[in-house]
Amino acid sequence: MLKATLSLAALLAAAPALAADDDEIIVTALGIEQPRDEVGQAVTVIDADTIRTRQSVSVVDLLATTPGVRFNRSGSLGGVTGVSLRGAETTQTLVLIDGVKVNDTSGIGDMYDFGNLLTGNIRRIEILRGSNSIAYGSQAVGGVVNVMTGTPAAGFAGNASVDYGYSDTLNAKADVSGGSGIASGGVGIAYFNTDGISSAANGTEKDGYENIAANAKLKLAFTDTLSLDLRGYYIHADLDTDNGVLDSTADTSKSDQYVGYAGLNLELFDGRLTNRAAVTWFRMDRDYTSAFGPYGYSGTNLRFEYEGVYQPVDQAKLVFGYEHERPDYDFSGFGSVESHKADVDSVYALAIVKPVAGLSLTAGARHDDHSQFGGATTFGANANYTPNAGATNIRMSYGEGFKAPSLYQLYGADVGNAGLRPERSKSYDIGFDQRLDGDRAILSVTAFRRDTKDQINYDYSIGLYGGYNNLDRTRAKGVEAMLALKPVDALTVTAAYSHVDARDRNTDARLPRRAADAVSVSADYVWPFGLSTGATVTMVGDSFNDATNAIRLDGYAVTDVRASFPIRENLEIYGRIDNLTDEKYATVYGYGTYGRSAFGGVRVRF
């Protein structure tokens, strides 16, 4: 078990992190494409090459190798999985899939469950850390995770892979894309099936899991200034579960996620004004069986979005928009039925100015009007300065966030509280990025702090059974570091370290399931004869399972190794061993995790 505190000095002595392209475009900071030198917030990108090289099955396993991320999973792959950014609640992470907000409106706190989000045909992930409600509204308190499938290729292209391994696990995926005339598009499908492991740490009965995912994109460019974007994503998951931390053959979980986007893009005034009007739709259906009978939840979020970007001169840009959101929630089971909904209207505006060479300033405000609790106004500002054309970037940001009470917290039978206020946060960070020797070495360091008030928790002192109330005040502060080294073209070494001190300001207790220290180191080498080998070591410090800090979760170190070899230009064999040292650990007390497991397969591209 890893019980020693991890230090930044140890990271810098032994670790590193992947370099980013100078011309890299960031989407997540404001919801529009921006060069990295224009962004004053902390953003990490996991690109297609990294996803392919690492061979990770779950998106969470990739996120865990980036700074400021903590996760917890209740049992085997497919179990309920939450992601915390910079020590925020897992319900305070806003999640996008291909531009669509996918937080579950039927959940207790609108948390997005990452358990069923596998890497499949995902090609890019951006993680923005820090409160950013101006661009995204409710839930962007800890930050934003933006998951994207591939951009359709020019001409025609395709990829396919299949691998097999431990616990009768089959993982297969394929996608094709192309373009002709005014149309370009792509489709993909992924299938995963495993006998699994017991969700209960001390259990012996395996809990099987099946996951089917499909995605599609179509773009119609009617003219140089007018286009239509259509996107879709679907996930079906079927999981055998346990009764808490005890073996059970009666408990199952089935879910279906539907993601849809239709957007019209129009440029006016020689491209000085761009307009995007879109309708997005997300639906989550969750059905369970248990010894007490079946029950289920369904949540839908229908959104209308308008966004304008006006750039009168090269040194100034104005981003403005309006959104209407209509979340709803249904429950049925145990002899009762519930149905609730709300309406949210939002307006926002941001200005990006470049008063002198190398300096980019951004500031803005947003107002959200909720049909239940009324209005919430948030502000934010950030700056990015480079004195040497991007070799050095100095960043700082201030952001405000809020999270609206979930429909369940507002209206849930016996426990809802229609008088709840939104959770509010203020976030500050300052950092720098330094590039050396033509990007062969890149160092990024960021210090941050976030204060949150009116955080919603369960209050046993109200009502017959208790209920939800604005009880908590929390604080998270710390430091994040990333280092990337590419001493020779064949070797890439990457690392991320973060110290996150997340505490309840009322009791000074550490917030549950959020280790103070975590570090991840990856190294990949391509040998002269084509063989590629690599390893990732992730070390996480001790944490607590509960808010009172009574149950300790020991720290751990997990080592994954991998290799791939091209048989011919478009054909490759690959394999990996996860948890090479067979480390025993838990991210949620009483739930199991995978031990040593090996997998191998083949992939082709054309």
Automatic annotation (TrEMBL):
Any Pfam family matching the protein: Plug
Main location: membrane
Entry GO CC: cell outer membrane
Residues covered by the TonB-dependent receptor-like beta-barrel domain: 166-580
Signal peptide: 1-19
Transmembrane recorded as keyword: yes
Top-level taxon in the UniProt lineage: Bacteria
Membrane topology of this protein: Multi-pass membrane protein
GO biological process, alphabetically ordered: cobalamin transport; monoatomic ion transport
TonB-dependent receptor plug domain residues: 37-144
Swiss-Prot/TrEMBL keywords: Cell outer membrane, Ion transport, Membrane, Receptor, Signal, TonB box, Transmembrane, Transmembrane beta strand, Transport
UniProt xrefs under InterPro entries: Beta-barrel_TonB, Beta-barrel_TonB_sf, Plug_dom, Plug_dom_sf, TonB-dep_rcpt-like
Keyword Signal: yes
Subcellular localization(s) per the UniProt record: Cell outer membrane
Assigned protein family: Belongs to the TonB-dependent receptor family.
Protein name according to UniProt: TonB-dependent receptor
Originating species: Sphingobium indicum
